């Protein structure tokens, strides 16, 4: 298996310019989230209980976190193939999260946090850092995977050192935000 990985790594790779796609996806994804945060939600929507969507968000974020931890362990053991598979799995669950997140915020107004005191302070700290870093992780994760696809291994490592901990934080705090606000749905 290692010989096959080495052979692949030695083959010349046609470098592609992913930068325009990364910029477009970053603007579309982050822009969609900003626009949805200001929408009132759909009135009288009763096709299904939309409150299941935030729970699905938390489940997808949980899987993303676990896949990222597994990817980190794999790369620390220098198992690039397993690392790559777990990263792709994390992208899948993050994409599913994004779909359910957009659906919920299109169909429903944002739920206000009902707690008070120190818990409110903790909640808003986690929420604000989660939101800011979630916006930042979009171009970071896309750039990291683009550099890997182009076999720019050193440049991939440099950005991955920042991307991995931020993505782990965002996926973990997404679950924490859900757990803290779920009593108020």
- Characterize the largest beta sheet: strand count, sense, and whether it forms a barrel: none
Radius of gyration: 19 Å
The number of domains: 1
Rounded mean pLDDT score: 92
Describe the structure.
By secondary structure, this protein is mostly helical. The chain has one domain (26-35, 49-184). Helices cover 77% and strands 0% of the residues. The chain is built from six helices and no strands. It has helices spanning 2-10, 19-37, 52-76, 80-107, 118-149, 153-181.
Give the arrangement of secondary structure elements.
Layout: H1 2-10, H2 19-37, H3 52-76, H4 80-107, H5 118-149, H6 153-181
Helix pairs in contact: 2-5, 3-4, 3-6, 5-6
Keywords for this structure?
single chain, 185 residues, mainly alpha, 0% strand
Compact description:
This protein has 185 residues and is mostly helical. It has helices at residues 2-10, 19-37, 52-76, 80-107, 118-149, 153-181.
